[in-house]
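> example.struct
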């Protein structure tokens, strides 16, 4: 058995502030110890209590640092890494102008392997240890991703895009081939180590009803597999869905009609949902990924977190790179704060922490594995540096409470703030 202990300030969410209030939503140890045994969280507590009991266990100490669970990104596209920050379009033009030509290159397994490596390094540099990831239509894009993530022993979920219409010929499959290819990928990767599979129809406009049925069949035949798609992101997109599916009552109803809602279904965006749709998402225990940098960048709109909270819909935080403009969940929370300010609502820093960690884990039904320091959870955690930049160091000198430090960390933090990242108890990134 390998045991190691980590000493710093420790903070993790234990509940949703919307359910229990802010004060009861987190646990904090100003001078804390996290004990990791064989890649799992063994104990957590005050240094004064735990140190005398540790015997010969090695204790790694970090000064001016805060240890939190690794961040969870509930929506991201690895093939879009190289097209992040592409200028000037809204969703549908952005897809045609930048996205489809970029994704074409993933027919080449060597290219896919290169980008998967760059992408995972970038996630870990930013403290993200779990993500729900889009591949491209090419099965080899998913093989490359899982191969790289498996070598790092990461808890990752991904899937092959299913897309059989309204996209260039070079990027389309068919209902039948998408079923066959997805099935083979599920059999190869789902449950292998910490890897999990997501059935991934791109969004309603690029799938025929037959393909959505094929997606539902995959879910039924493989319990435990995820469903990952986009929903109600952009006004023109929503109008297009109405034209393509005139017999359905709305965008969500397209997915609902085909049996794609459920506890492991994650819908990215949901910027323009009505009350009825929120209610249906909650009834089916489906989750929504809030992607603030992407929604601002593509001009999609302001995510109504309060409405989803009112209906008790599970919500996680997503970067949605490459429409999102940062891999950093701290930067995403910075933008989320501003999205809420524009709606006259304050996003509490402990709610922000929840969204990026335990809330994400719950959205992905992984709360018994990651997202908090509950005993027995997989030891995925980050060491955040309160003094990452001269400005942060100076700002922290003025801060008088944990709440104030956490908020400043979120607003000023980015990849420079992540001193070290651990996955399954192993160091997978150390800042140079
Ligand atoms: N809707 C369909 N495809 C995409 C995509 O790649 N990115 C975003 N943000 N929305 C989409
Ligand atoms: Zn997306």
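> example.seq
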């Amino acid at each position: 058995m390998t045991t190691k202990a980590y000493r710093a300030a420790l903070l993790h969410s234990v509940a949703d502030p919307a359910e229990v209030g802010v004060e009861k939503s987190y646990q904090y140890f100003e001078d804390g110890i996290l004990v990791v045994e064989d890649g799992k969280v063994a104990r957590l507590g005050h240094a004064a209590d735990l140190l005398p009991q540790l015997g010969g266990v090695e204790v790694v100490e970090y000064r001016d640092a805060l240890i939190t669970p690794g961040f969870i990104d509930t929506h991201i596209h690895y093939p879009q890494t190289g097209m992040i920050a592409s200028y000037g379009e809204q969703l549908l033009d952005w897809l045609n102008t930048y996205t489809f030509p970029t994704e074409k290159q993933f027919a080449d397994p060597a290219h896919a392997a290169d980008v998967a490596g760059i992408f995972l390094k970038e996630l870990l540099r930013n403290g993200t240890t779990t993500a729900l990831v889009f591949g491209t239509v090419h099965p080899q894009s998913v093989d490359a991703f899982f191969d790289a993530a498996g070598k790092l022993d990461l808890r990752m979920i991904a899937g092959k895009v299913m897309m059989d219409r309204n996209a260039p010929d070079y990027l389309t499959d068919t209902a039948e081939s998408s079923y066959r290819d997805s099935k083979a990928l599920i059999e190869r990767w789902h449950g292998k180590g910490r890897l999990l599979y997501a059935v991934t129809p791109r969004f309603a406009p690029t799938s025929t009803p037959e393909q959505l049925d094929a997606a539902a069949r995959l879910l039924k035949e493989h319990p435990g597999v995820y469903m990952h798609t986009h929903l109600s992101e952009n006004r023109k997109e929503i109008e297009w869905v109405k034209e393509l599916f005139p017999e359905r009552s709305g965008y969500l109803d397209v997915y609902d009609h085909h049996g794609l809602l459920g506890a492991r279904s994650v819908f990215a965006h949901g910027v323009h949902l009505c009350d009825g749709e929120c209610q249906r998402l909650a009834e089916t225990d489906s989750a929504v990924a809030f992607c603030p940098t992407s929604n601002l960048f593509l001009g999609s709109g302001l995510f109504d977190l309060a409405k989803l909270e009112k209906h008790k819909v599970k919500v996680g935080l997503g970067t949605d790179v490459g429409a999102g403009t940062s891999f950093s969940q701290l930067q995403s929370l910075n933008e989320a704060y501003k999205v809420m300010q524009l709606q006259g609502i304050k996003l509490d820093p402990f709610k922000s922490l929840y969204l990026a960690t335990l809330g994400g884990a719950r959205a992905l039904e992984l709360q018994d594995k990651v997202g908090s320091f509950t005993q027995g959870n997989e030891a995925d955690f980050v060491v955040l540096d309160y003094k990452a930049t001269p400005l942060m160091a100076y700002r922290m000198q003025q801060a008088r409470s944990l709440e104030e430090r956490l908020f400043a960390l979120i607003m000023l933090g980015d990849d420079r703030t992540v001193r070290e990242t651990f996955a399954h108890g192993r160091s997978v990134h150390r800042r140079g």
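> remarks
The mean pLDDT is 98.
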